[in-house]
Fold this protein.
Amino acid sequence: MPENPLHLLLHPRSIAVAGAGNNPAKMGTLQALSLLKDGWQGKFYPIHPKEKTVLGHKAYASPLDLPEVPDLAMLVVPTSQVAPLLEDFARIGTKRAIVVSAGFRETGEEGRKLEERLREIAKTYGIRFLGPNCIGILNTAISLNVTISELEKRPGRLGMASQSGTYVTQTLSYLRERGIRFSKAVSCGNEADIDITDVLEYLGEDEQTKAIILYIEGIRDGRRFIETAQRITPRKPVLAQYVGGSVAGARAGLSHTGALAGPDFLYDGIFRQAGIIRCRSIEELYSHGWVHATQPPLRGNRLAVVTNSGGPGTAISHNADQGGMTVPRFSDALQAGIRPLIMPHAASANPVDLTFHLDMRVLVTTIPQLIMESGEVDGLVLHGAMNSGLMKMFHSHVSELMGNIPLETFLEQAAIDMSDAVTLPRKYNLPLIVSSFFGREDNSTSLYMDHEVPVFDSPEKAAWGMVTLLRHKEIRERKPIVKPVLPAENPEAARIIRTALAAGQKALDERQAKQVLAAYGVPVTREEIATTEDEAVKNARRIGFPVAVKSCAWEIMHKSGKGLIALNIRTEAALRTAFQAIREVAGQEIPILVQQMISGSREFVAGMTRFPGFGPCVLFGLGGVFTEALKDTSFRSAPLSRTEAEEMLFDIRAKELLGEFRDLPAVDCTALAGILQAVGAIALIHSDIAEIDLNPLIIAGSKPIVADALIVF
Amino acid sequence: MPENPLHLLLHPRSIAVAGAGNNPAKMGTLQALSLLKDGWQGKFYPIHPKEKTVLGHKAYASPLDLPEVPDLAMLVVPTSQVAPLLEDFARIGTKRAIVVSAGFRETGEEGRKLEERLREIAKTYGIRFLGPNCIGILNTAISLNVTISELEKRPGRLGMASQSGTYVTQTLSYLRERGIRFSKAVSCGNEADIDITDVLEYLGEDEQTKAIILYIEGIRDGRRFIETAQRITPRKPVLAQYVGGSVAGARAGLSHTGALAGPDFLYDGIFRQAGIIRCRSIEELYSHGWVHATQPPLRGNRLAVVTNSGGPGTAISHNADQGGMTVPRFSDALQAGIRPLIMPHAASANPVDLTFHLDMRVLVTTIPQLIMESGEVDGLVLHGAMNSGLMKMFHSHVSELMGNIPLETFLEQAAIDMSDAVTLPRKYNLPLIVSSFFGREDNSTSLYMDHEVPVFDSPEKAAWGMVTLLRHKEIRERKPIVKPVLPAENPEAARIIRTALAAGQKALDERQAKQVLAAYGVPVTREEIATTEDEAVKNARRIGFPVAVKSCAWEIMHKSGKGLIALNIRTEAALRTAFQAIREVAGQEIPILVQQMISGSREFVAGMTRFPGFGPCVLFGLGGVFTEALKDTSFRSAPLSRTEAEEMLFDIRAKELLGEFRDLPAVDCTALAGILQAVGAIALIHSDIAEIDLNPLIIAGSKPIVADALIVF
């Protein structure tokens, strides 16, 4: 495997910056100042057309004048100057660059050409670059910061790759306020060369990074993304936000980084396939990422809730329950340990609700410790730790009563020892999440944050912060994904497709489609074409009544509701009537398909569509008339391993139908998964196929059988 | 209508507090200090068994010693002292009380009895009280604060009723930090007397209150709650959070305020029926409530997005789209106005993305003004206003370059005029929501907050903050709810039920159930009971083939999958076979129901269940085998008006099935709504009925017909 390009990019010993000057209102200057002020120890070379010194450093008019070849070049210059400068750096042997400048693909055709030129330079000289239209990188381990914002000094454990620069700059003070710290963060911009998958791969290997978060507006190479993530996610949590999946989101993204967005439901499936936990907001992305980066893994789903107030306790319990956790009633022994510590009317069963209680140590240390020691839970959410924040609120009211006690003295007297409280997760190897309505103005909040115990500003968020750990437990416990071996091209299937294409068909007719499917092992209805009534009767006898009778021609892609289909034909007479009726609608020459009638009350749909960036994607869902009305479907990118195919079955809301259901046996999910694998394989083997639609896929007893099929070129 | 008890409670001229002393670590003292320190102008009378003065005021040993009858009594004393004290206050003529003390119903049977005693006292003397187990009230208009926390001095426009005391005390500094201010807030506690519906009703009439938020763990009198809310919600937004609907949530709530919780799906329906906007977290409740309290109503769904960063702009657009808004492309004229203000590569179409741009006035004033003037949108979400917060981040980097400029000078030089920016919503009567990663440390955030422009700390939240206004537009535009007139009791139906009960039946058989339904106008299948094969054949001829044949006995409540039912019988021979087959399973004496066979591919379910607090509730949903697997249902409390019945049809995810669908005509929703109304009426008229289950309710053509029915006592 070639070295990941991020390695050198994130560890340069020397950086040349084009676009830095002495005007502090310029972006390039601000970025260079971050380099110089935040503690990075490497060499800085400003490139400037006129200035002799920039920010106190000797400036050079051109890369060609530099005294050494810098490891990294940074370009913050007008769009037109980017390509020539990049080429100059490439020529002298610089191997990495960050192109901050915008005005490329995101602006239209002309910009696209300019961007293409940058790629050519990169290929020609072997220089790898980030951007254009990005904000750069952070590597807190070596205090490297090329963004415009000031860096938090303490290194963190959370790695980020972002298709928006804002999320590694404008948010730095937001993150500091919440105690969240990056290990490394990379703004990917337009991804003309290095892309978000490169960053993901790098962070997957990076030891400083305990959890990875991704902000995504569109993925270019879907397969590589999925496979890279699959290698990482069983051992290191990866979380992602995707916002390109609506008309408005897609347009905004296109003008932002020129990203080509796919529909929201596709990314839902892709993330599940990749083992990535999807987040619905940037807040969730950061805060849940930070939970994964700092807390021990969750080993079960039993949650303890400790609170000094009923409302938050109820809200935490309710939300944790909705996320799949239980809040088990504590054993009598554990409750007996807790009860002497709380007031008589307070609750000890779990949630433990101390109610109004001024001795904070009981809330933050004594009780949590008892609970963690008990072995009765797998994690704890705590609400109500508060000290100086609350005391500041009290002070103006009580100071007179307390002899005009100064605020400082008051706070000192009320201060509590948090040293045991903040180390509980490490001591017991159990995750702890804190909910508090007090921010950094409260010393208990600050102390938790500074000791890497995540604090959420509402109880519901704290509950979901714990639940996200449960999601990674499920991902850790996934069945292994064994890369599937595609079957060889089936000559009979190839012949059918070739013939149809040669005849100018835009789709296969139902019979042809079923033959192609059958060639790859997909169970289909027994059926035969009839061109006369008598032949139809003969076919029906061979197949066995009842039968279905359908017009069969590739031009008629959707037959239902047009009088082109007759189901449940039980007698010869009825068959003759149906035959004539269909011919009356569809013409006297139309071939008639006589088909085994499958009965089963569970109908599904399987299919395939190609999406830019992801190639053929397989669909599974609730079938029959409900496909459209309920849109209860799941997607995966092909090819599908056995595990991936089985998982996508259970992604639908109606998954209960797959098990024993009322008087019906469980569905043969091995067979069903096999069909999904075959659909993906067929699409990969036969690239002329644009779409596959198997609907309904009827469950007869426990066995899935394709009752209707459409294959479109 | 009697005067709402909250009026006097929230406007007392004098308050006596039992439980206040001179120890600042006691809750009663802290509460009394709030009364004294936060600006309320009334008279304060401490009741104390020993102290002569409390907090500088003459103390009285008993209510009987007071020099005047206080308007309000507050009790913060041990549980056992509450009843005697309340009775003393009641005796001297005090008409309102707040019982803060806990230890009542929430602790079990003994507490329940103590609470019952308080109710008796209230009834006997006509004293109305809040609590027990509550934290009290806030009325910012008169600076009245009886909670333990310091009051925000400026009155607000948001009214709150909470079944958790924390949400009107522990959160006060949280709210101040976010610029959210109450008009009035009431902690309801156990609701032994005054309940959350009383508070809702009061806030509905209160002119200072522009929007109402409710934190709910369980509603006791569902009908009164719904009808009260329905009177308010078309003109004043009401938002609610409910957290009792899970096993864990219910247990937590029970030990918290003794609330009896109903399932989550029930409250979903109740809130929709009441016109209440449901919130999923306390953060959403506060922040969305504040949006409604401060912003002009949304008149359409067209949103403008203005940003200085692509990521947030994309996230806002995506989330607004998901919430039902559009982000329309601006007209050429409007874009032509915007383009000269932004950089060449920046986007003007909507979102307007300025990218890195140091002139904040363009972002916060000039462009928003152009857009609001254009008439092309109904609201605007702005991201990226930042001034001192950002500058503080820059200062340490740039100060040396700027001649060691002091922070204050630097901030002064960078300060921007926000005076026009903050008045935009009022000037154009269009809602404005701000997204910023900077909190109060940034002066632009603070200025927005202080001028009642809501600021959210992430772009997604800002988008949803705008979307919540769209929800109230829909509620304003609901069809009027005309209180339904219940039909008179049908004598035939009453006779059938009476007879069945007399015979010891625990349910009606299918035939009886259908007769009861038909008596109230519900369309059911034609059908007749047969006791012999020949009679069955005669019946089938009269009804017309095909028919369904079923065993018919009340003991067999669920027939499917047991050989007790045969569908689609088309011939006499098949009928005889089926008749025998069923009798073989169910016994030779079983009556056989011969029934018109309804065919239709759309199947629904209608039903009725009784829930504590809400009485009979009507269910509608997707029917047939999918009822269980998809749980796609909606609920309403009976009786149902025409509007309510129609609305609940379209609450299901599969609502598309109700319109024209594939080759099927639109469902006759008037008829379908009529069935739901009838189901509710039957339950109210015949109180012996515990449950009704009409499944499937088949749509034949466009007409709904009940194909199977179960009525359980």
User: Anything to note?
Assistant: The radius of gyration of chain A is 32 Å. Chain A has four domains: 5-292, 295-476, 526-597, 602-712. The mean pLDDT of chain A is 93. DSSP finds 25 helices and 30 strands in chain A.
